[in-house]
Design a protein that fits this description.
heterodimer, A: mainly beta, 6-stranded mixed beta sheet, globular, B: mainly beta, 7-stranded mixed beta sheet, 11 strands, about 0% helix
């Protein structure tokens, strides 16, 4: 079974600084997708960024980028120029073959003014 | 477009009572999912559906039943609620092919079983 591990239960970052959230996964599949979701205090799950495993180029969405290391099964999220609105729970998720997503347990990010 | 909506947003049940959570979507998506979120556990899949009239078990299906009689609705039922079912429940939908498309989530339902 696929597993997703987020080893940092909590992280903090100064406003305007850069922070990296870690995620590793275990799979025997060769074709899969990886996602980062953000969950602010409102509880709404919001897609931040998506990475296709067959693409070597790391995905980027404005201030959010990933470092995808397929051989190491690592998928970290980098947030640049952190803003107060970035404070939230961040979940890494994996999807392949079956129809479901497997989520990590989440990292709570605090942004310090 | 409302996207994905969930009814109700909050509910308190006594042990042994039953209830149904409704998920509705207006995006014409084939795939629908029910997750539960518990502190420190992330999201875990309860049941899912790959189309109208179909359902399948996820990671934690015990104590729950589902139905997908209409494409736009996915119902989650608790026949005899237990305190262990206290959680936040999320519905999600996905369009396109099975692989590669993100899931869109509803706002969640907070359920407390006393």
């Amino acid at each position: 079974a696929q597993t997703v591990t987020q080893s940092q239960p909590e992280m903090s970052v100064q406003e305007a600084e850069t922070v990296t959230l870690s995620c590793t996964y275990d799979t025997s599949e060769s074709d899969y997708y990886l996602f980062w979701y953000k969950q602010p205090p409102s509880r709404q799950m919001i897609l931040v960024i998506r990475q296709e495993a067959y693409k070597q180029q790391n995905a980027t969405e404005n201030r959010f980028s990933v470092n995808f290391q397929k051989a190491a099964k690592s998928f970290s999220l980098k947030i640049s120029d952190s803003q107060l609105g970035d404070a939230a729970m961040y979940f890494c998720a994996y999807g392949a073959g079956s129809y479901q997503l497997t989520f990590g347990k989440g990292t709570k990010l605090s942004v310090i003014p | 477009n409302a996207g994905v909506t969930q009814t109700p947003k909050f509910r308190v049940l006594k042990t042994g009572q039953s209830m149904t959570l409704l998920c509705a979507q207006d995006m014409n998506h084939e795939y629908m999912y029910w997750y539960r979120q518990d502190p420190g556990m992330g999201l875990r899949l309860i049941h899912y559906s790959v189309g109208e009239g179909t359902t399948a078990k996820g990671e934690v299906p015990d104590g729950y039943n589902v139905s997908r009689l209409k494409k736009q609705n996915f119902l989650l039922g608790l026949e005899s609620a237990a305190p262990s079912q206290t959680s936040v429940y999320f519905c999600a939908t996905k369009g396109g092919t099975p692989l590669g498309y993100e899931q869109y989530f509803g706002p969640g339902t907070r359920l407390t079983v006393t």
